[in-house]
Amino acid sequence: MRRPPRADHRAPTHAFCLHVPFEQSLVRRAGEPIADEAGETQLRERYRAPDPLPGGIETVIRADATL
Fold it and tell me: What does DSSP assign to residue 5?
C-alpha cells in the first residue's frame, strides 16, 4: 500500500480545502480573459462541492472566512 506524502514529512503538515461557492466562481470567471469559452451550464457540470480528505486532516476554508 502506498503511503501518503505527509507520512514521510517530519515537520507538521497542514492541508487546506478552499471552498468557493459556484455563484462566486461565476463572478470570478466573468473577469477572466477566457470567460466566453465556457458557459454557466458547462461550468456547473465541472463544479465540485468541497470534498475534504477522510480523517479530518484538511481544514476547509469557506468563502466567508476572514484572515
Answer: G
What is the rounded distance in angstroms from the CA atom of residue 26 to the CA atom of residue 39?
A: 9
CA 63 to chain centre: 11
What is the C-alpha to C-alpha distance for residues 13 and 57, in angstroms, rounded to an integer? 9
pLDDT of 40 above 80: yes
Mean pLDDT of 12-32: 85
Q: Is-contact 50 60, C-beta < 8 A?
A: yes
Helix or strand run (H / E) with residue 30: helix 22-30
pTM of the model: 0.55
